[in-house]
Design brief:
CATH superfamily of the largest domain: Immunoglobulins
Number of domains: 2
Radius of gyration: 38 Å
Order of helices and strands: HEEEEEEEEEEEEEEEEEEEEEHHEEH
CATH architecture of the largest domain: Sandwich
Structural class: alpha+beta
Shape: rod-shaped
Length: 396
């Protein structure tokens, strides 16, 4: 019981210290990505700031990093524990100051150097520099607080690309269960893709998913894309006719796999407000097709009515990727899946019974005026003639 209490207190202490660390210590930049030629060395600077009102002593360390799982989360390892030594970087890193003490509110630039050894391995190498402001320990548990800067170093030479898509699936979250399926009755519809990178470079693959109807026509405005500046500053949003995968350009590290997910939730559209501002709204599949038929439904004849029915359409999910490396080697990938989507559709119903009665009535009128009425008129004229003849015969 005592061990459990100590563990719980340690966890709460860790959460508190993480929050305090985020406010009191600031490191920039958080990632370096650059090229160093063989047998060469280069230096860069890291800005470290103490935002607290007390002095802070920082302890530095270096480790390699690899992909922890298919989410892309980095896992830090000692060089001797590296599964793929050819990707190691930690032993190439040299810090100008191993440990440093910052005065309250002080910002300092820490210089580090990358020395590529003669027995270098071509391709990308991955490491991290850590800054640890303190170590808290008890007899049961030890907690080390640290912030890191990721380093991605390319040693150019025999750089190759080898990748493949291990799985592309379409699924839906049904009552908390993730179910891969081909029949859908409601949004959202989710897509995921497992990408494997087998060689010595990290990749930033970006896919495009289009939804085609039964006539192979892409559905419109199925995603709201964010436009940013080269510095990743928000500019605007626009409606696009595809769903992106890895829109934020996450890396897939060498010798690893990563899962990318996205979902189709709505049809998006913009509206102009009364104050001349624009806002984004959305509609479901039923509303989308209702709008397509709205023009026809606005001009109904008296024998037409708008009814609702559940229909099912075959949709084609087309996932494409085009990737070009610096040597102009181009990789193209395409995969298709057919799904069936059910939705409520409004349609124009024609009352054929009413049309039949109308035709019958017209025919009856036609028959009356062309057949019955002339015969009746002829009989009347004949009867009138007969009466006139009788009257004439009486007066002779």
């Amino acid at each position: 019981m005592k061990k459990i209490i100590i563990l719980v207190l340690s966890i709460f202490s860790l959460l508190y210290l993480n929050t305090a660390l985020a406010w009191s210590l600031w490191v920039s930049p958080l990632k370096y990505e650059f090229t160093v030629n063989s047998w060469d060395s280069k230096s860069w600077l890291i800005k470290v700031s103490n935002n607290s009102d007390s002095p802070m002593t920082l302890y530095t360390s270096k480790e390699d990093f690899i992909a922890w799982d298919d989410t892309g989360t980095p896992k830090f390892v000692k060089p001797e524990d590296q599964t793929y030594p050819e990707l190691s970087l930690a032993n190439w890193i040299k810090l100008e100051e191993e440990n440093l003490t910052l005065a309250p509110r002080e910002t300092r630039e820490v210089k580090f150097k990358i020395n590529v050894p003669k027995d270098w391995e071509p391709g990308w190498h991955y490491g991290a520099i850590f800054f640890s402001p303190w170590v808290w320990a008890s007899s049961q548990v030890s907690i080390v607080q640290r912030l890191w800067v990721l380093l991605l170093i390319n040693v150019p030479w025999d750089v190759k690309i080898s990748w493949f898509v291990d799985k592309f699936s379409v699924w839906q979250n049904k009552s908390g269960k993730f179910e891969e399926k081909t029949n859908f009755a409601n949004f959202p519809i989710n897509f995921d893709l497992l990408f494997k990178n087998d060689w010595n470079v990290h990749l930033k693959p970006v896919w495009k998913i289009e939804i085609l109807d039964e006539n192979n026509i892409p559905l419109k405005n199925i995603w709201r894309a964010t436009l940013t500046s080269p510095a990743w500053a928000y500019i605007w949003e626009k409606m696009v006719d595809f769903i992106p995968l890895n829109e934020t350009l996450w890396n897939v590290l060498p010798k690893s796999e990563r899962k990318f997910e996205s979902s189709w939730e709505w049809f998006w559209y913009t509206v102009l407000n009364t104050d001349w501002t624009k806002s984004v709204k959305f509609k479901n599949l039923s509303d989308y097709y209702a709008e397509v038929a709205s023009e026809k439904q606005a001009y109904l004849n008296f024998w037409e009515q708008v009814h609702t029915r559940t229909v099912s359409k075959n949709m084609k999910v087309v996932m494409t990727l085009s990737y070009e490396w610096k040597d102009k080697e181009k990789k193209d990938f395409k995969e298709e899946k057919t799904i069936k989507i059910a939705y409520d559709e409004k349609y124009v119903w024609i009352n054929y019974y009413l049309i039949f009665i109308l035709i019958l009535l017209i025919w009856a009128l036609f028959y009356y005026f062309t057949q019955v009425a002339p015969k009746n008129q002829a009989r009347k004229e004949e009867e009138l003639k007969r009466k006139i003849m009788e009257e004439m015969s009486k007066h002779k």
